[in-house]
Structures are given as structure tokens and as C-alpha cells.
Design goal:
This protein is α/β, with parallel strands linked by helices. It is built from 12 helices and 8 strands. Strands 1, 2, 3, 4, 5, 6, 7 and 8 form an 8-stranded mixed beta sheet that branches. The longest helix is centred in the first third of the chain and has 23 residues. It is globular. 44% of the residues are buried.
Length: 272
């Protein structure tokens, strides 16, 4: 599909989760319908901007840890979203210039901006697949994936802020297990996932807003997020609130968020 085709396929009549996330991060790649929905969310949960920012920061830290401490040189990032710099490949390649990254997303708007995702170092490689997480066989069979990644070598499967849009009836646990099954020993799984654990009433309302707008959603508890890592060796500190997973020093004057504001469980596991 060309970018012009992608532009024609973009539905601007209802909000989209990737465009709401872009709004939360202060981006410009969203429409009025997304802004209205995002402001409705923010009216219920003003800390949604903190939550989005901490999610992004976790992705950066997890990527650096896997590159520097665990020798990972390949990433499969599903549910990529609209590019917001620095993107995962920029973080990875700043640590290891030969990093290879495959992005996958089912939103035509992401395809429209996919060129931003292709700006690799000379030593590394980045590519993009338009595919849906709920069809893991299509992702694993994609020629672009096999051209970019060597599946006999460890790969980090990055699922950031994705799984809370995959309700249980779509079998997210089975899909994650299938994807990890296809990856060799030494591969990694990195997850960030919204949770109702700190404010159940508010998050029930937020899920209702997304569902009413046509986006499936299901937030999960710490134990439910932990189930995605069954059979893997969790890195310290295990399943932790986003801002507490391997924290780095904050800028001078920056305020430490509360667990309720962040409302994300995060974790990284290594396949034995």
C-alpha cells in the first residue's frame, strides 16, 4: 500500500487510540475528533499526559538496558503508533549502531508517517510492516521481517501500550506466547500496560470512553500483566509501576509522579 492509499484509508470520523496517544504526548498528528476524545479522557483522568510520558520513558530505558546489558541487537515492535522522536530504533541505534528494528502497526496513519521509522544508521536496519497484532502468523511470515531480522538470533519483542487494547476474547496471552515461541533463547519481551489497580473507578470510566468510541479496551491487574511473562526470566525489579522500572535521574526541578498518575505495569523478561 502506498502512502497516498494510506491517507485515503484513514478514518477521521471517529477517534483512534494511536492518535489519542499522539495528543497525550503533545504531537500534531491527530484530528479534531481525536482531540475531543482525548480531552474527554483528560477530564476524567488529568494525569493521562503523565501516564503517556512515563510509558514512553519506560520504552527508552528498557531498550537501552536490553542493548547495553543483554546484547540484544534486534527488535520487533508491534503497535508502533505514530512516530514520536526519539523512536525505538533511534534509542537502540544510539546504544548499538548495528541494531535492526521491525515496526508493525495496523493503523494507516502510521504507514503515512512510516518514512520517519526508516531513518536507520548505516550499520543497522529499520523497516515497517502494516499488520495486526491479532494475526501473529501474518507478522511472522512477512518478508520484510525476514529481510531485516535473523530469527536464529535473539530478538526483543516490544509491546508498549498495546495489550490494553486487546481484550481477553482476542486471546492476547496466546498471541504473545505464539510470538515468543517463534523467537530463540535469549530473546526478550518488554511490556507496558495500563492498570486499574490504583484507581479502579476512574479506569472503569476510561475503558468505557474508549469502548464507546469504537476502540476495544481492557486494563489489567499486576497479576494479569505478569501472566504474559510466564516461562520467561523477569529482569529486576520484576513487574513494576512504569516510573519505578530502572529509573534514571530526573531533570532538576522535575516532580516524581505518583503510582496513581502513572497507572502502568511494566516489565521485561528474557526467554531461557
Amino acid at each position: 500500500m502506498t502512502n497516498s492509499h494510506a491517507a485515503r484509508d484513514i478514518d477521521t470520523s471517529r477517534p483512534h487510540s494511536a492518535r489519542l496517544y499522539d495528543y497525550y504526548l503533545g504531537g500534531k498528528d491527530h484530528f479534531e475528533v481525536d482531540k475531543q476524545a482525548a480531552e474527554k479522557v483528560a477530564g476524567v483522568f488529568p494525569a493521562i499526559f503523565v501516564c503517556a510520558g512515563e510509558n514512553r520513558a519506560f520504552m527508552h530505558r528498557a531498550t537501552r538496558v536490553l542493548a547495553r546489558e543483554h546484547g540484544i541487537r534486534q527488535w520487533l515492535d508491534i503497535g508502533t503508533g505514530i512516530p514520536t522522536e526519539p523512536n525505538l530504533h533511534q534509542v537502540a541505534q544510539s546504544a548499538v549502531p548495528d541494531a535492526r528494528v521491525v515496526y508493525a502497526d495496523n493503523d494507516p496513519l502510521v504507514l503515512k508517517y512510516a518514512e520517519r521509522l526508516m531513518r536507520s544508521t548505516a550499520e543497522g536496519r529499520t523497516t515497517y510492516i502494516q499488520a495486526d497484532f491479532t494475526d501473529p502468523e501474518a507478522i511472522l511470515a512477512a518478508p520484510e521481517l525476514h529481510e531485516a531480522l535473523d530469527l536464529t538470533q535473539p530478538v526483543a519483542l516490544s509491546l508498549n501500550a498495546l495489550l490494553h487494547f486487546v481484550p481477553d476474547d482476542l486471546d492476547p496471552y496466546g498471541i504473545v506466547a505464539r510470538l515468543m515461541e517463534a523467537l530463540p533463547s535469549g530473546s526478550a519481551l518488554a511490556i507496558s500496560h495500563c492498570t486499574p489497580d490504583f484507581d479502579p473507578v476512574t479506569w472503569q470510566t476510561l475503558v468505557g470512553i474508549y469502548v464507546a468510541a469504537g476502540t476495544p479496551a481492557q486494563v489489567r491487574s499486576r497479576d494479569e500483566v505478569g501472566r504474559f511473562f510466564e516461562g520467561l526470566d523477569l529482569l529486576e525489579p520484576g513487574i513494576e509501576v512504569g516510573h519505578r522500572w530502572r529509573p534514571e535521574p530526573r531533570q532538576e526541578g522535575a516532580t516524581e509522579p505518583t503510582d496513581t498518575e502513572v497507572s502502568l505495569w511494566t516489565g521485561v523478561g528474557i526467554k531461557p
